[in-house]
Amino acid sequence: MPQILQDLAAKLAIPGLPDWVGLIFLLLLALAALAFLLMPFSVFGVKGRLDQIEAQLEELRAELRALPLRLQDQPRPRSGGRVVEEDWVEPPVAPPRPSAAPRMTPPVPPPAAWPSENRRAEPKLDWPPRR
Per the database entry, which stretches of residues form a coiled coil (predicted)? Predict the structure, then answer.
């Protein structure tokens, strides 16, 4: 048995470290994997979500149980199965647009405004300052 561990330690040896360090890393990795597999799902919040889904499912089942009872209580319409809505409001009618003839030429833009020759548009800089 010690020979098997020595061979495994030699195969897992990390250059520059003692031979047993690779075996320790492998054991730590196996322990972390085992802890991850044995961890209860409630740690990840799965249990809480499952409880919420179960509560919603129970509410839906209760509504489905009550639905046939509500359908039996409603009077059947006499209009051949069609329900006529009493609160229908006609949509507002848009005012008619004036019928103007479409323009055949594009609009002419205003002429470009050129600055006067006496005014400068940019500031005058005197750099470096003269002394």
Answer: 43-70
Give the pLDDT confidence of 44-95 residue by residue, as tens digits: 677 788 889 999 999 999 999 998 888 887 766 555 555 556 777 788 888 8
**Looking at 8-12, 62-66, 109-113, which range is the least confident one?**
8-12
Distance CA 61, CA 67 (A): 10
Cβ neighbours for 47, distance < 8 A, ≥ 6 positions apart: 40, 41
Place of tokens 């005058």: 124
What are the helix (H) ranges across 45-115?
Answer: 46-73
Residues with Cβ < 8 Å from 48, sequence gap 6 or more? 42
> Which residue, among 111, 20, 57, 28, has the nearest Cα to 8 in the 3D structure?
20
* d(C-alpha 43, C-alpha 103), whole Å: 72
Instruction: Report CA-CA distances (Å) from 26 to 30, 34, 35.
Output: 6, 12, 14
Is the backbone peptide bond immediately before 106 cis, with ω within 30 degrees of 0? Answer: no
